[in-house]
Amino acid sequence: MSITQTKLYGLLNARVSPSVPFSPQNTELVNVVADSGATWNSRMTLRALPGQGYSGSTPVLYRRIDLAAMGLPEFSLGQVTSHQAMLDALNSRYGSWLTMSDIEVDAVGTDEGIDQTITMTARPNSFAWIGSVQIV
């Protein structure tokens, strides 16, 4: 289970306080899509796994973290040698938990193999992240 799923299950259990906590052993989190409302920007489905104590499914409305709202552009690309190294440095600096499976990276222009501008865009199926940010 990813750190994002661990956090989401923790938040769901804290909010709902089910008698049997939701977990990957009895439910699954599926169908993440952008949605909008007064207090949410995303919707996913919490679906019961057969024979594990729950039945059916229910929508979960929640707010994914907008990459642009994190203030990530304050970063020197000259210090990193790969997109994974960039992500590791960003996570360390900002306390985030982005993974390469959460984002798509578009690099524009290089100077001796070093990206000059990088746009990170949250993948549509990312459980925790939405939006994009440009890092120069």
Q: Which whole number gives the mean pLDDT?
A: 85
Low-confidence residue ranges:
none
- Share of helix, binned: 10-25%
Main sheet makeup: 3 strands, antiparallel
Please give the count of helices.
Answer: 2
Radius of gyration: 17 Å
Please indicate the percent range of residues in DSSP E strands (runs of 2 or more).
25-35%
Helix-strand makeup class: alpha+beta
Biggest sheet: strands side by side, in what order?
1-2-3
Q: Alpha-carbon distance between the termini?
A: 32 Å
Q: Strand-and-helix sequence, N→C? A: HEEEEHEEEE
Tell me, what's the shape? elongated
Number of strands: 8
Describe this entry's structure for a reader.
The chain is an alpha+beta fold. The protein has two helices and eight strands. The strands form three sheets. A three-stranded antiparallel sheet has the order 1-2-3, with no helix packed on it. A three-stranded antiparallel sheet has the order 5-6-8, with no helix packed on it. A hairpin with an 8-residue loop joins strand 2 (42-48) and strand 3. The radius of gyration is 17 Å and the shape is elongated.
